């Protein structure tokens, strides 16, 4: 319960023994005799002033000088698909529990840190990453913290707001650009011109990124102060803001701020240590996918970060990741998403068997030797494709894994090859995209395949920029065709602009960018190229193949759960921003801005089969069907 006597529920206790604890306000005379440091009370009140009364809870122990402070971090700003991919409950706050000395507070021992969601006790791996980040941050800050130091910082701030203080000299020239909300909801844009152009939900990017523009704002008591998530401060003249700040300027301002911003910047201490922890948590949560879960150093990818958090390729981190047991469990993944694991293995095999494997089989696995945990059995610095192929050939089919005890299946694989199961673990855990097999009721019927998947790979920051650009310029859907051997890398590195790089396979006749088409036959042609096939089939050839495949009697059920063949073709359906940057050369489109293309769906075909070659995503009936599925799959997962 908090300092006003609000009670905790048993679920909020995170499984601790309540019988040894007394709740403040009802605990009796024993706890009443304990000294409570006034700076702790001041910091708790600061959290309530800036957030809400429910943003902090306090639990005292009746017989010892300890106090648990629970900070409730709202994560409602995460999109549904991000929350699903990260396995968090976006409607429930993340609890950061700090245990302080009740009487000494900042002068006492360094607080312990726990991170959890009350209803998400299993599989909350994101909590482990955030706990490590906040524990490190607390240790670094604790070296310089004391109650006296914090009090001096707060007195310095209060001196600004006195009758003759500095703030009076320029307060009239400032307006409220983006106020700190009293509720956990997202900040609203205060420009009436913008409200007519942009709806509020599409401008959640400032809070979502939280490497956002520093701004002048009012707290609930009416005082003006500066909240700096980074070192920049943006002041907007009140008299001219509605007339001069256009939507375009706001977006440019936002994007330019991101270049100089950084989620690791240390928030101000002027509102207390607890507020500082909350602000730092809010900065870090939306960008967890951009940092290694072990060393907390930023990933370096060709096309920016991906959707799911992951370990980096540094050997020390790989060893730590293995020994900590954080790696995604293959047993759970096979049980909950066997079709997806089946697809991941097929993509890995296609890339490994390609003549271009030295280029496209990227990343190469980092797998710890189960017989020698201090050695890498598969090492990107010492690539051995033959050994990798042998281990992959020993990975049993996912169909077999689902038909018996997983432990027995693992034992069989270990007998065949002790590296088979560790490799399967890596294939699953290294996937940084969110893939879900679509149920029949949510499949696009005109694609004529049962192997249809929701495919999201954009990190929160890119998705936010995409939605903002979509509101400005609109969007449409188009296909992207690429041989299945390339998708092992795409799922881990993103859909990259390969023009004029070693990854380029088909040429760049229309310039540099990501190639798309509204016509299915063109993308089907690209999807079949690879493994020595370098001539695109014509549309007539694709139509003939499609008609021939539809007249051949099926030897197995059409709606097979798993892939039956190693001869696979695939295409993706992407959403693309229709800005002036999108270059249309007839039915071949080129988008030079990678942020303007997001994958949405993925379709797989077997044994040379292709879908309908006459699909045009610009036809109203096709768009209507796409939106029917999009509306339920992407925006509500």
TrEMBL record:
Keyword entries, A-Z: ADP-ribosylation, Glycosyltransferase, NAD, Nucleotidyltransferase, Transferase
Superkingdom of origin organism: Eukaryota
Gene Ontology molecular functions: NAD+ poly-ADP-ribosyltransferase activity; nucleotidyltransferase activity
Record field: catalytic activity: L-aspartyl-[protein] + NAD(+) = 4-O-(ADP-D-ribosyl)-L-aspartyl-[protein] + nicotinamide; L-cysteinyl-[protein] + NAD(+) = S-(ADP-D-ribosyl)-L-cysteinyl-[protein] + nicotinamide + H(+)
Enzyme Commission (EC) number: 2.4.2.-
Top EC category: transferase
A Pfam family: PARP
Residue intervals of the PARP catalytic domain: 400-627
Function: Mono-ADP-ribosyltransferase that mediates mono-ADP-ribosylation of target proteins.
Family: Belongs to the ARTD/PARP family.
Name of the molecule in the record: Poly [ADP-ribose] polymerase
Native organism: Takifugu rubripes
Gene: parp6a
